[in-house]
Amino acid sequence: MKDYQGYLIDLDGTMYRGNEVIDEAPAFIQELNKRNIDYLFLTNNSSKTQAQVSEKLNQLGIESNQDNVFTTSMATAKYIKQHYPNGRCYCIGEVGLFDAIEREGLTVIDDSDCDVVVMGIDRNISYEKLAKASLAVRNGAAFISTNSDNALPTERGLMPGNGALTSVVSVSTGVEPQFIGKPETIIVEQALEVLGTTQKNTILVGDNYNTDIKAGINSGIDTLMVFTGVTPFEAYESLPVKPTYFIRDLSEWFK
Predict the structure, then answer these.
(1) Catalytic site residue 12?
(2) Which fold has domain 84-179?
């Protein structure tokens, strides 16, 4: 095993499931700190702000500050700022998405007469919200979604993710969105810039083959797969492209 200068670490299914900590996670982060290895928590969950994610981690006994949290909402807002700096955004999502959009100085409107439709997880989704988004996309608005996760690991089990919600607008309009989160390279490229490491000396840690591991593969960085979340251990043999490393849980990594 090579030494890595930076770790990109998934949250849901890797550090915790819903509001329950994964037992091996706190010690894993403590070991990174002990070895002075830089890391960034990289999450596809767009619902919380950077500060809220950090607070949750600390409450679960996982050492964190908001500077080592990078969310798909933050990556989405940066992408929109770069490509549609003056665009008026109609947003479906929760506080994490709205906070990130506003921090980038973008304009948010509650109207289908917009330039950009932005979708993130919304546990208060309604037909009217989906209708406005669909009308806007049909009228030519750019269609951007924070992530394509169809399922979200929670203490209750796998719940509908943002990809499932986004599919309603996509199926209705026939327009595929630009996804920003894992497995896309956009969020990984931004995260590497924030972390200050390179592809060669960074590893991505995650539980979901179709998002976390594929993000590493697509971005040309090494991957460490754990089986504490979405992808079961029994699926390993059938994975088309194997992760660089795999372990059942994080307690095995530094042994």
Answers:
(1) yes
(2) Rossmann fold (3.40.50)
